[in-house]
Amino acid sequence: MEKKKRKVDEINASSMADIAFLLLIFFLVATTMDVDTGMTRVLPPWVDAEKQKDNTDINQRNVLKVSISKGGRILVDEAEYTQADLIRDKQTNESRLSQETKTFLLSPDRSDKKDTVVNNQRLTLSEGVVSLKADKETQYKVYIEVQNELTHAFNEIREDYSQRLYQSSFEDLDPEQRTVISKLVPLKISEAEPNDQTKK
After folding, report:
1. At what angle do helices 96-106 and 140-166 cross, to 10 degrees?
2. pTM score, whole prediction
C-alpha cells in the first residue's frame, strides 16, 4: 500500500518584504558617510580685459608662479627647485619653498600690501596670490608635497598673527577668532589648468 506523501506547510513570507524594507531604512538612517571636502583654495578675483592691459605689471607683481613638470622639475618664477627644497629644516621648520612663499607674501618689495587695524594693532596684509600649475603626468607625491609646503607658508603667517592678536596658537583659538585670522590671511592658492604634454 502506497504511503501518502505528507504535505509540508509553506512558510508565510508575506512579511519578509516589510522586514527587509525596515532594515534598509534603519541602515540608511544609522549609517554615517564620510564626505571628502577636498582642498580649499581661493581663486584670484576676475579682472576686466581692458583693465588688465593697464595693470599687467601690477598683476604679475602679485602672482608667485609655481609650476611642476611631469619629470618632477619645479620652477618658482624663474628659479629651479628640487624635491630636496620641499624638505623642512628641523630647526626652522621651513623648507626652501615655504620660506620663499612667506617672503613673497610678507616682503614689501615682493607683492602689494594693505594696512588694517585689528584689536588696536596695525597689520600689513599681502595681496599676493600663489599660482600653481602642474603637468597632467606630474607624480602625485611631488604635487602633494608642493601643495603642503605652500599651505604651510600660509599657516605659518596665520600662526604669527594669532600670537600677535590673541597671544595664542591658531589651533587653540575659538571659532570666532579663527574666522578673523582666516579672513586676514586667506589661503590664496590658485590652481591653473594642468598642461598636457602627452600630445607633444
Report:
1. 50
2. 0.66
